[in-house]
Amino acid sequence: MTYETVRATDPAVADALEGERERQNDTLAMIASENHVSEAVMEAQSSELTNNYAEGYPDERYYGGCEYADDVEQLAIDRAKELWGADHVNVQPHSGSQANMGVYLAALDPGDKILSLDLTHGGHLSHGHPANFAGQVYEVEQYEVDEESGYIDYEGLHEHAEEYDPDIIVSGYSAYPREVDFERIQATADAVDAYHLADIAHITGLVAAGVHESPVGVADFVTGSTHKTIRAGRGGVIMCGDEHADDVDSAVFPGSQGGPAMHNVAGKAVGFGEALDPAFERYAEQTVTNAKALGERLQDHGLDLVSGGTDNHLVLVDLRPSHPDTTGKEVEESLEEAGIVLNANTVPGETRSAFNPSGIRAGTPALTTRGFGEEACCEVADLIYEIVDAPHDEAVVAEVSQRVDELTDEYTLYD
Ligand SMILES: *Cc1c(COP(=O)(O)O)cnc(C)c1O
């Protein structure tokens, strides 16, 4: 994609857009929640549908002129149903957080009780953090992972639920490298007569491809983002049984949003269509294989992985055992200088702060999109290790940067 038309009228914005394309081409995106969509998804997202007001749902709109918006939204819904096997799908949430907001609004009253995973243990702001609306409107208590094993403490969660008597239990996480046992959490929710929201934001693509156990048909509500392990452009999605369909739809519109971002719904339709191709299953499998290879090579270098490994697309490195004086932030900054972009992350039992935590989180979805296999991921692990071991050594940063240039030249991305 060129930005010639933007450049003709607005060179400042064109500079930023071209800069961003070059940045993505020339660096390795290892932020576990990021990916690269196809040119087809980007083209759909930049369509004339951005002009359209489609308040309501297909064939039940408040304004005229929605025949093509109806087509696009229905395609997105039908494809999502096929991908995840859900009875009911709402493709209008502007983001994963707004999908969660829609479910809370559909399922809870103000003051009701949420039980969700602690943010520093891998949870998400939208699960009831005090800085998020959910933490202000609802009562929130949090469960944890077992600090020894790094796995969800399912037994502790069950006991906590019996004591706290929540109205909803939230599963699904931002920095959890292991398979989630949704059925076990559902059993806890059933035992205390609570709803269960499975937020699969990070693993929507893995679930769609059958590479991770699916909560669809198990949990009462499932939310996801459409831009992480599935490459359908920025947005959110809600899935539920038919019994909750009307409540969910009215919680999204008019409950918490106005007109849907129909150009993004078009991006979702295209991206979901791509994910229905058998090649997507291979992509999802490779993403997980790559994360395992990355993790094992980091372990070979003596680094400590939370939970001892990974079942999904990300690894979480606890720097404290091997490099007690090095923080996640230092490593993040030096890696970025060398062209490897990932994020510092808290680890279970965090002893520093959320701003300067003790871990780094690294994901393989975007590298796998670029065509990386296990061997290339092992090489990236070697590069990450070199920086972890000497984050302030300019010569090391320069050498890693050189290798990143070679890798990004070999595995090309956008024209
Ligand atoms: C990324 C994420 C979300 C959604 O985030 P948005 O940026 O609002 O799309 C929701 N829940 C979890 C667990 C996430 O990791």
UniProtKB/TrEMBL annotation:
BP-aspect Gene Ontology terms: glycine biosynthetic process from serine; methylation; tetrahydrofolate interconversion
Main location: cytoplasm
Compartment(s): Cytoplasm
PROSITE patterns reported for this sequence: SHMT (PS00096)
Keyword vocabulary terms for this entry: Amino-acid biosynthesis, Cytoplasm, Methyltransferase, One-carbon metabolism, Pyridoxal phosphate, Transferase
Ranges where the Serine hydroxymethyltransferase-like domain occurs: 7-384
Cofactor(s) it depends on: pyridoxal 5'-phosphate
Residues modified to N6-(pyridoxal phosphate)lysine: 228
Source organism superkingdom: Archaea
Site annotation Plays an important role in substrate specificity: residues: 227
Keyword match Cytoplasm: yes
Binding-site list for (6S)-5,6,7,8-tetrahydrofolate: 119, 123-125, 243, 353-355
Catalytic activity reported: (6R)-5,10-methylene-5,6,7,8-tetrahydrofolate + glycine + H2O = (6S)-5,6,7,8-tetrahydrofolate + L-serine
Pathway listed: Amino-acid biosynthesis; glycine biosynthesis; glycine from L-serine: step 1/1; One-carbon metabolism; tetrahydrofolate interconversion
Subunit and partners: Homodimer.
Function: Catalyzes the reversible interconversion of serine and glycine with tetrahydrofolate (THF) serving as the one-carbon carrier. Also exhibits THF-independent aldolase activity toward beta-hydroxyamino acids, producing glycine and aldehydes, via a retro-aldol mechanism.
Name assigned to this protein: Serine hydroxymethyltransferase
Species of origin: Haloarcula pellucida
